[in-house]
Amino acid sequence: MAGSAAAAANLEDVPSLDLMSELLRRLKCSDKPDKRLILIGPPGSGKGTQSPIIKDEHCLCHLATGDMLRAAVAAKTPLGIKAKEAMEKGELVSDDLVVGIIDEAMKKPSCQKGFILDGFPRTVVQAQKLDDMLQKQGSKIDKVLNFAIDDAILEERITGRWIHPSSGRTYHTKFAPPKAPGVDDVTGEPLIQRKDDTAAVLKSRLEAFHKQTEPVIDYYKKKGAVAELHAEKPPKEVTTEVKKVLSS
Known about the structure:
One of its GO terms (cellular component) is mitochondrion. One of its GO terms (molecular function) is ATP binding. InterPro entries: Adenyl_kin_sub (IPR006259), Adenylat/UMP-CMP_kin (IPR000850), Adenylat_kinase_CS (IPR033690), Adenylate_kinase_lid-dom (IPR007862), P-loop_NTPase (IPR027417). The chain is of the alpha/beta class. The chain has a domain at 33-155 and 200-247: 3-Layer(aba) Sandwich (Rossmann fold). It is 52% helix and 13% strand. A hairpin with a 6-residue loop joins β5 (161-163) and β6. α3 crosses α10 and α8 crosses α9.
């Protein structure tokens, strides 16, 4: 009861416009079908671009396991305390703990219509544990969106990215080059490449992705849940593909 009283007091401080727009959003969402989705794809495949669009269109919550772990640790939930102990010992947080944190997060009002899981499951064991947890609740994963893209295209996409550090302006040697090579259009200052955007880093991340995560795609294929996307296409075309897949 104390919790609901505190929540009510907090609502008094929320501007009317925000309250109204949230109410309208919930009304609009009320007749949307529930969807539980997993997004799988290598770094640079466009999951981060499509995820907010899917989230808004289908009234889902976005569950990024890294963010959720940090939030659980910060909120000192029982699972968060256990996760912090593991991290402090330099251990990996156990699959059961992560699934437990997803289970907790799914109970939030924003997850009422379902969720988008990104960054999990990375292994078949994690997928099985997730399925077991969902089964206990009488639900299951509806669709796994596989952002399929050729490694060579990814390498071109990622290693061509250059950034102007102070403004965050981004360029691409092939798709959006600066007016003069290696310098920012506005300030003329030198551009840098992020540490993660080099060919060597990408190669090791892709190797890990193929080794660990491809079996997860096969696991969900057997269940008939996988939808293949052509992630090498321009973002707008990928959005159209996603819409088609999720309306069926």
